[in-house]
Design goal:
The chain is mostly helical. Helices cover 60% and strands 5% of the residues. The protein has one domain. It has a three-stranded mixed β-sheet, sandwiched between helices. The radius of gyration is 18 Å and the shape is globular.
Length: 281
Amino acid sequence: MRMISVLAFLLMLMSIAVPDAVMSADEQAWRQRVSAAPPEMTSDDVSEEIRFGREVAARLIGRFGLHTSDQLTKYVNLVGHSLAAYSNRPELKYHFAVLNTSEINAYAAPGGYIFITKGAIDRMQDESELAGVIAHEMGHINGKHVVKELDIKASEGSAVSGLARLIGGGTESARLAFSKAVDQAMDTLFKTGYKREDEIQADKGSVMQCAVAGYDPAGLIRYFERISTAKGKSTEVLDKTHPAYDTRIILLKDTITVAAIDTAALKTHKDRFTEAMKTVK
């Protein structure tokens, strides 16, 4: 049942037309620099990462269900793919979807699967805030935070190292080991949270990725300031798995200052966001 849900999810996303990104000369140079970094993973490692992330994505879909608005899904994908054009993981194809829950949160599964909850979108006021949240989650994937923590890879001088023996193994013990690894990934998302340094890296990455894509990176600050006042069940998981908002806001402001980013020259796309939300219930 989970695999059917994910296949349906992927087929739905494949039908969404995404315009090619138009990059300036400076943006092209930046993309070439991050793409030229020495690879830490083989193509087989990436394949295993995607397969592992697909199962995590299936569990997220099974837990919440997908929001039924095609218009909202298309809009989130357009924003997401405009950011993905500047990712340092060109080997991945990113997928974006909205989870049907009032919980305020967002989730990243290895291999390029990013989910935003409807509750989180309901608290946003412009497109740069949505972009900031997506870019933060993309930072976890770009930084391979779950991949490194759980040693998700196909080979390291041996055909049976990493999770290849778990995914490829046909024994009951192999299946149980793989399921346990997925359980650990879910615990990271819902119980223990990422390492503090991983959250810091994702926040800093969000600033730079939004700015290069033309979004006001202060959108994430405005969003954090707004949801920091929300209390109750809708923020229970978010509060438990993430650092304090005041700490993150200071970090984001410092990152913008050190990078000398002129936020006034970048876009919030508030009108476009407001128009898109008119079609969503």
